[in-house]
Design brief:
With about 200 residues, the protein is α+β, with helices and mostly antiparallel strands. It has helices spanning about 10-35, 50-55, 65-70, 85-95, 150-165, 170-200, and strands at about 40-45, 75-80, 100-105, 120-125, 140-150. It has 2 domains: about 5-150, Beta Polymerase, domain 2, CATH 3.30.460.10; about 155-200. It is built from 6 helices and 5 strands; from the N terminus they run αβααβαβββαα. The N and C termini lie far apart (about 60 Å). The structure holds ligand 0O2. Pathway: Purine metabolism; ppGpp biosynthesis; ppGpp from GTP: step 1/2.
Length: about 200
């Protein structure tokens, strides 16, 4: 039996619908402003194995309630932007969607994690036509959105890969280097933002 129970089959559809809505936001923005709102958009339903592992780690029972209520990233999206400003524009536009309700925000861009991780995390509740784990139909589901620049995304992928390599000989040195690179990339993001502003001003 899936940890997502009877709700497993709804999750890919909710992901697709949410992706489609965000694509529409991006297209409308580009039409109006003549530039891309984001560079790319991706999403995934967390695999049952990863969700099971996460629940076990948190000592939660292996139930749909744990997977869909206690954890709120069964459905996850990532919006990767060219510029830092675009991230905040995206957030404003997401907040204007009547069927998206933002319930939690973490700004790891303003307050980077000590290891150098930068990203903006949103947890939102989306209204869906499906029954939810509380028995409501139409039901509400949590969706996690991570918003980052290309530089932040590149760094996070590399760091994520390192976390899963357990045979690294000098992890302290690598963590220190990664932190240094994260700060350099953050500085480049600010410079790129400034250059775009200068070009805009003519
Ligand atoms: P995966 O495999 O990417 O899904 P949660 O852990 O979700 O219950 P918490 O602690 O509030 O809640 O999470 P937070 O801080 O919002 O981070 C959630 C996700 O952000 C992680 O999901 C990662 O995807 C990403 N993330 C957070 N910190 C780091 C980091 O230091 N490095 C990298 N590369 N990614 C990070 P999962 O479930 O941990 O992993």
């Amino acid at each position: 039996m899936s940890i997502y129970g009877n709700y497993a089959s709804y999750l890919p559809q909710i992901l697709e619908d949410t992706l489609a809505q965000i694509r529409e936001i991006g297209q409308a923005y580009q039409k109006q402003n003549g530039q891309k709102l984001y560079e790319h958009l991706e999403g995934r339903v967390k695999s049952e194995a990863s969700m099971t592992q996460k629940c076990q780690k948190k000592n939660l029972p292996l139930t749909p309630e744990s997977a869909l209520l206690e954890n709120r990233d069964a459905i996850g999206l990532r919006i990767v932007c060219n510029f830092i400003d675009d991230i905040y524009t995206c957030i404003d536009l997401l907040k204007q969607q009547p069927n998206f309700k933002i319930v939690k925000e973490k700004d790891y861009i303003t307050d980077a994690k000590p290891n150098g991780y930068r990203s903006y995390h949103l947890i939102m509740v989306v209204e869906t036509p499906f029954e939810d784990v509380r028995g409501n139909k139409p039901g509400k589901y949590y969706v996690e959105i991570q918003l980052r620049t290309i530089a932040m995304d590149t760094w996070a992928s590399l760091e994520h890969e390192m976390k899963y390599k357990h045979d690294i000989k000098n992890p302290e040195r690598i963590s220190k280097e990664l932190k240094r690179v994260a700060d350099e990339l953050a500085s480049c993001d600010v410079s790129l933002q400034t250059i775009r502003q200068l070009i805009k001003e003519g």
